[in-house]
Amino acid sequence: MTKSIPTKIRYYLVSLLRGISQVILQKNALSGALFLFGVAVNSINMAFGVALGVITATACAGILHYPVKQIEEGHFGYHDEVPTSSTTT
After folding, report:
1. Which of 78, 79, 82 is nearest to 26 (CA)?
2. How far apart are CA 62 and CA 79, in angstroms?
3. How far are the Cα atoms of 40, 42, 43, 66, 75 from residue 69, in angstroms, in the given order?
4. Predicted confidence (pLDDT) at residue 2 exceeds the cutoff of 80
5. Among 45, 68, 82, 89, which residue has the least CB neighbours within 10 Å?
């Protein structure tokens, strides 16, 4: 059974926010949203870099058929978030 479009969007957004929160070793979408907000308050460019890194890493993990459970937990967002945020400063 396939998921509906709103369910897929919600799943993807939660995965992205959990990926952002992995930097502070949390698996919580709210922590990710607050962390991204805090970065944006400091530097919009850095927040853009964080979002870009997490989006590309999570999308690539899905395209390459990595385990869904690991994508949902945000494991792939952390690895690209740190380098892209530092290069966009």
Report:
1. 78
2. 15
3. 28, 32, 32, 9, 9
4. no
5. 89
